Amino acid sequence: MFFKKKTLEDFSAQRESSGMHRTLSTVDLTFLGIGGIIGSGVFVLTGIGAARYAGPGIVLSFVAAGLLCMLVGLAYAELASLIPAAGSAYAYTFASLGEGMAFLCGWSLIIGYIVTASAVAVGFSAYFSGMMASLGMEIPKAWLTTAPEGGIINLPAVVITLLIGFILAHGTKESSRLNTILISLTLCAIVAFVIVTSPHMDLAKNMDPFLPFGAAGIMTGAAVVFFSFMGFDTVATSAEECKTPEKSLPIGIIASVFVCLCIYSVVAFVLTGTINYTDLDRADPVAYCLRLIGYTGLANLVTVGILFGMITTLIVYIFGQARVFFAMSRDGFLPKSMANIHPKYGTPYFITLVGSVLIAFIAGCVPMLYIVELANTGVLAAFFIVFVGLIALRRHSPDLPRTFTFPLLYVLAPIGMLVCLYLIWALSLETNITFIVLMILGYFFYNSYAPSHRCWEKK
């Protein structure tokens, strides 16, 4: 059974009987992808990545990570046009490499989603507390830092995560509308930051040296900021809630990655050109930059837009992890109760709420950088498997009807696979050991649980 594959007919039958409401259009999916990408890294990791890994070369780190995600996005686009099913990489691997690899891919993806959402919640807390302090309402440090950092719990991160989980449990279309509104406000905040800050750039002072950590720092920085682009995966997880998934999914995936790659590069360049990278080792670099050049009031306004962006990202990640959980539990690899659909709202409400609690716990209790590195390892591993699966599916089933085809597959896919492996290697040894332990635990869970609970063959 480890290598037993699902057919397209199996996926179609599950899609027809899922009970999920099909309400999302191409525009909804594009904004869903942008919302998942734009708030996750540029507002949080630009400063940390520049100060600790790449210096002003963090711009190139974002470009490298974004180009890899463009390759992954092309692979997703072909697979999504073939397999419009919830679960994204999990579903694609099930069709190409079989049940066992699909479970491990889904397990890896869940780790990435949950941990990444936690990192975004921590970033939200940093910006929120900075804005409150500038208004004279400082939150005690004990309620902003984890126990390992000398505090008690990161309370704002916990509260915002639980609130968004509750909203998502009450409907996909409603969440999509909120996401579209908030991401529009976030884009306005980014434009305001770039326009106001650009005249204060001092390239001679702040861009020299451009690569203080050497060329290797670019790729190490790319490994750290990579999770900034992960949100496009959520577009694929929403396949069973799309009106026309075969057309909408490829457009939504590729458009959202390209738009955000451009935005990330511009913001990183302006930020490191205005403030020396040695002063950016903080979780709220954009607001800090505006305050440092004398725009305290605008910093607070931009912070509101940034907070909206982080809220949209949390919406997308909590949405995405719930759909992967849903797909795996529907097949019998996780407890069946996780696949329960709310009779009124048409959402996997139970796992949405459970996942929100788990994300809130990690955000409230685990330090930021460790969260980020673990998220990247999980996502990179899942993307590596996606490349392998696409090559296998193209070789074994070349005649399947495809509305989108990955160009130069046998050249670009191996390049993407090598970059994934390199970025995993560039992360800390402790992070990779933790990930390996989690994957071994996942494999043992699969071997003990799946034989007596799998039910996807009955569909």
Automatic annotation (TrEMBL):
InterPro entries, per the entry: AA/rel_permease1
Compartment(s): Membrane
Membrane topology, as annotated: Multi-pass membrane protein
Transmembrane segments: 29-51, 58-77, 89-110, 117-139, 151-169, 181-198, 210-230, 251-272, 292-320, 349-371, 377-393, 405-427, 433-450
A Gene Ontology term for the protein's cellular component: membrane
Record's keyword terms, sorted: Membrane, Transmembrane, Transmembrane helix, Transport
Signal peptide: none
Principal place of residence: membrane
Pfam families (UniProt xref): AA_permease_2
Protein known as: Amino acid permease
Species of the source: Selenomonas timonae
